[in-house]
Each structure stands twice: as structure tokens, then as C-alpha cells.
What does this fold into?
Amino acid sequence: MGRLIATRLGLMVPTFVVITAITFAVAHLAPGDPLQLADEEQASAAVVEAARRELGLERPLGQRYLTWLGRLARLDLGASVVDRAPVTERVREALPRTVLVSGLALLVSVLASVFVGAQLAARHERRWARVVSAALTLASGVPSFWVAVMALLLLATPRGVELFPLQGLSSGPGAGVLDLAWHLVLPVLCLAWPTTAMLTRFVRDGVSKSLEQDYVRAALARGLDARRVLWRHALPNALVPVVTVIGLHLPHVVAGSVVIERVFGVSGMGLLAFEAIGTRDYPVVMGVAAVMAAVTLASMLVTDVLSAFIDPRLRLPGSAP
Amino acid sequence: MSARLGAAVIALWVALALGADLLASDLPIAVRVDGRTYLAPLWTRPAALQAETQPGLRRRAEWMIGTLVEFGPRQTLATTGTTRTDAPPFAPDARHWLGSDDIGRDVFARLVHGARVTLLIALGVVLLSSLLGVTLGALAGWKGGVVDLLLSRALEIASTFPTIFFLIVVVAALRTPSLTAVVLVLALTRWPEPARLMRAEVLRLKGLDFVLAARALGASEARILVRHLVPNALAPVIVSSTFAVGSAVLLESALSFLGLGVAPPTASWGELLQQAHRSLVTPGAWWLALFPGLAIASLVLATQAVGKGLERRFDVRR
It folds into this structure.
């Protein structure tokens, strides 16, 4: 297991460097820099030149990237060009919100899809199972941000029922956990939406395939309870590919969180990056992109290790999926 | 949805997108006014009609063939010449079939014109990324060795790429992205899938007898790859590309929804939903959110249905 983690980590570091290098290059090769926006407000040439030198914008790109990478190693993401606030601090405020919303959404989708998926596979001949399956297909075609807008329209505005808050994660300073939970309901459910639709169908197909296997028939023939066969025999075997699929799906959850944060005004990483575009605040944009790349890679590592934990065959060297 | 119904829905959207100008425009299809006849002025945009509107022309013209809906996608309340006592957004009625947004632009007009942008981007992305993926995947599978190793590493990196933040950076760099730029960037983020499928198929096929037979007949390496291997390995790519059209529609609308898509005032489905989100501040305009959402969902479900049909027909297991 230790060797698996070591190999995976060895692959992750170059991946991270390539991802950030490409992003860095795109951000900095583009025509214009933050000071050109300042230019439009008629700053004098000498002032602009001095500021540019101070920010290190006159040095070659490769050098700037290496400096940035070196600072990153010391967990320093630089300072915002706009208000000189350290980016690390901004990220420290925003990241927990994004992780909270995405993590809860992932948890909700996994729990819901394993439970519902297994039930659908076991009772595929029932009418309600067919209705739910059809609804899941429908759900996968409906964009989550549309669901979010409709949910706000129906559940958070005077037009519908004002059950939930319109924006943000808190009603004000000093609000408790219940208030937070109340604010989290809609964002988490809307973010969980596409993942649940995808995952439930995946679990259903996996479980119905294992239910056809001989060992299931053997277990039933030995007189085991059908429910026990479903949950203890058929389901665990179907869960191995599910963990892999969750890992591959993580970037989509991250992407979805950006949109959901925008709709619900949750000031997480997505909204932070988004607001930084407007001012071309590259240190902030780069910082967010780098941290989110690292978070995504780390969670993929976790799912890899989890797969190996569930399926011992994956622990052997040279058998990485 | 059956594959046939899916194909019909896609065909309907393509037809609506192609005929958008004939369905909803600020100028008529043909008109005779002030002693002159104008044919398809909506494409030629003659200076004489520049400031006209369809309702205005209809009053003065000897005869006129109007479009189905008398509004263009960019016409606001100020330029339609409509006088109404209430303020926009207007609810759906006989004039604005699907309602209007908060500056009086007709939702139907914007929806059919937006279909052009959305479809063009989705098709462009899928075609371009498939071309790129097939080329790279086929080469890697055929050549093996260093080429294959490089591609496999690139695939691994690309599959963990946090696309959305990369797109945010790119858009920040471009400021007002053009249609071509959006297609290029999205295509760059989707090529790994066809590449992986192509590589696997070529690896599987290249040991088979028909390749040996072609070589024995004296076919060149390039000919074997292009004429024998690629056509036989294409089925999984075609199936996955069909599904990808739907995902591209979703991705494009998510981007436009964030304001990172094609620059306004060009309408696209995601941008229409962005309007709807903004109008939530003055709630009640349900038509702004409902219709673009239905359009996106119908198109995505249709591509999924067609993809499933092709999957069964080609006997491809994903």
C-alpha cells in the first residue's frame, strides 16, 4: 500500500507542475497586464514602470514561473495586485466553503446513489423502479445551474414559497450551525444533482450485473436472506468501479461548484477566481487554479488508495487501473 | 427517449437554428414599400430599411411577407417601437410567444438565434477534438514506444486538469472571447477521450490478420493505418462523440452562464439563463428560466438517446 501511494505521489508532482505551468503561461502570455487596466485611468508612465518592476513583470516568463513555484513550496501564493492582500489568506477563507459544499454534495450523491441504485437493481421489474430510472435519465440531461435557478425561483423568492435563503451561507455574524445548514440545503442538493443522476445509474448497472453472477445464485441457494445477499454479497463487488468513477468525476464536481457558488452567492474558490478575472488579478487567479489543481489531485489519490483498500488486486505493482 | 425521437429533436433544433432569420428577425422576408421591392432584406440589410421595424413596415407596405415572430434577437423595447404601459419583462402573450427579458428582448427570437451559437460551438468542439484525439490516439497506438509513452502521460495529466479554472484563466486572458476561441479552448480540454478510445482500438486491431494481409500485399505503413486501422477503430469514437455533443452543450451553457462564453449581446442558451438568474432580483419572470432550460435539456437528452442507439447498433461497450 505504501508503494502504491509513493508511485501515485511521484506521478502527481510532475502532473501538478505541468498543469500550473500551462495555466501560468496562458495567464501571462496574454496581451495586457493588470497595470494596463490601471493605465486606462491615466497613470503616468514612470509610476507604471516602477510598479511593473516592483511586481516583477519585466522579468522573463520562465523565471517568473520558477519564482512563483518556489514561493508556492513555502505556501506563499503572492499578493493580490489589486489590494496587495496576501492570496494565501483569501484562499484560506474561501477554500473551506468550497470543500464544505462540494464534500457534502459528494457525500449526499454517494449515499443516495448506492442506496437507490442497489434498490433499483434488486427491484427492476417494479413499476416505481422503471419510473425512477426514467427520471434519472431525464435528470442527467438537465443542467444543474438551471435546477439551481429554478429552485431559487420556486423556493427562495416571494413568487414561490420562501423556504430557503436567496444568497450566501450565513444570515449574519454569530449565526449558528442550524443557520449554516439551512443555507447549505439548496447549494448542496443542486451540486449533488448531476453526480447523483450519473452515479445511481452506474451503481444500478453494476449491482444488476453482480446479481446475475453464480456466487449470488449460490448464496441464494444456500438459503441466505435475499436482502443480505444484495447488501453484503452483490453490492460490495459492484462498488469497486464506483470508487474509480467517483475519482474520475471529481473535476466535474469542482467545475459544478464554481457555477453553484455563483448562483447561490457562496464566496468560495470559484467566486474568488471569478471576481479576480474582472480585475485581471493574476496572482489570485493563479493561486486559486493551483490550489484547486492540488485539491483535485489529492482527492484522486484518496480514491485510488480507497480502491486499493477495497480491491487487493489493485495493490500489486504494475496493475494500476 | 428512443434514438429515432432523439434524431428528430436534433434535426428540429438544427432546422430552427438554420432558419433563425426566417423565424424571428427585425426585418421581413420580403416587402414592397415606397415603390421598391426588397427581397430578403434581413440578409442584405439595405440602408433604407435600417431604422425600420416589422410592425412599422406592415402599416406602410403595399405587401409584405413577415417572419413568424416580428422581433430580432437584439431588438430591445426601445428599438421595437412598441408602446406599452407596463414595464418589461413581459409575460408570454400573442406578441412575445415566450415572453421578453428585462430590456424587452423577445425570448423566442433569442432562443432560436442562440441555438445557432450553442449548436455551432458544440459541433465545432466535438469535431475538432475528435479529429485531434483520433490522430494522436491512432499514432500512439500504432507507433508504440516513446510516442505512446508521451501520449499516455499527457492523457493522465489531461484527465486531472481542472478544466473550469483553466477556462477562467483563458477567458481572463482573452477578455472578450470570440466564437473560434471558445471552440478552440473547449476542444483542447476534450481531446483525451477520443484519443484514449482510438489508442485502445488500434492496439487491439493491429495484431489481427487483416493487418498482416494488408502488409503482405505491400501496403505502406501510412496506408495500413489510415485506410485499414482507423476506419475499423472508429465506432467507439463515433459513439462517444455523440454523447460528447450533449456534454459540450452543457459545458458551453455553463460557461455562458458564468459570463465566460461568447461575448454579449450574442445570444446563447447559457447566456439566456444568466439573464434569468439576474432577473431573480425582480422575481416572477419564470419564462426567462424555463424555456432556455427546456431547450438545453431537450437537446442533451436527444443526443444521449441517439448515442445509446448508436452504441447498440455498433455493439460498442463503453
User: Anything to note?
Assistant: The mean pLDDT of chain A is 83. The first helix of chain A runs from residue 2 to 29. The two ends of chain A are 15 Å apart (CA to CA). Residues 2-10+91-314 of chain A form a domain with the MetI-like fold fold (CATH 1.10.3720.10).
